[in-house]
Input
Amino acid sequence: MTTSNHINNDTILTQNEPKQLWVVFSGESDIRWIKMIFRKGFRHCYTVMNDGAKWVTCDPLAHKLELSVHHQIPATFDLPQWLTARGLKVVPVRAPFYKKKSLPPAFFTCVEAVKRMIGVRKMRVLTPYQLFRYLERQQQGV
Output
């Protein structure tokens, strides 16, 4: 008898779907060419989630993917407002809808990682500012 290491993602997601999800945009970057090319205030992006019990951030950096569960921050704390007060743009997003269809290959960037986390399939959204504008239009129903 063989055992399987396969985890049923459908079961996990239905039990632990994030109740709230935000995309955070930052003007900070340690990479010089990013500062020269990308729009001020939109040089990096990452996600913040609250599942009702804890805050989780997924920060796709140039050298690693940083996934953090913030046990020290109460779930009731208004983290998006705190980030906004520090000059970051924070955009709430609707619950992701994932098509069970393979996405085309793409470079692993912060934008691509965030797009896949929130279910955005727009190939022409390549920069943090383009993603911000796309999310703004989605909120306005355009």
About this structure: Helices lie at 9-16, 32-37, 79-85, 110-118, 128-139. Residues 128-139 form the longest helix (12 residues).
